[in-house]
Design brief:
mainly alpha, 129 residues, elongated
Length: 129
């Protein structure tokens, strides 16, 4: 499986899509699917993690991190994954988005310097308010 298939189309309600449907569309055996994932939600989580990991790496590479860098990077990730996120929202999968965003933010915060953490905390207040 690769990330290029992440923004997949849901031709029927998410809860009606089976692992067999996914494997058929991706031309995979069920065994291959289960070697990589436990359930279909894991595919969505994987896709989101890929985007958030890229975001963390991009931000970590900056020598001086500003609030604008963080907001621009988050905006870019959301825009790049707009189709996937919209599909997830339409199928009431907000919990997966929230879980992965939260995990990504926690991971990012744990790797930050003190100055970056202060910038990050300001961003969180901005997002919450």
């Amino acid at each position: 499986m690769n990330t290029s298939s992440c923004p997949f189309r849901l031709e029927k309600p998410y809860n009606k899509i089976s692992i067999r449907d996914i494997c058929k569309r991706a031309d995979l055996s069920r065994q291959t699917f289960y070697n990589c994932f436990n359930e279909k939600d894991d595919i969505l989580r994987f896709c989101l993690k890929q985007g958030f990991n890229a975001l963390s790496q991009e931000l970590a590479a900056k020598k001086s991190l500003q609030m604008r860098d963080i907001t621009d990077s988050f905006s870019a990730i959301f825009l790049e994954n707009e189709v996937l996120l919209q599909l997830m929202l339409e199928h009431h999968l907000e919990n997966i988005i929230a879980d992965e965003l939260s995990a990504s933010l926690s991971t990012f915060a744990s790797k930050c310097t003190t100055d970056t953490k202060n910038t990050y905390i300001r961003l969180l207040f901005f997002l919450v308010l």
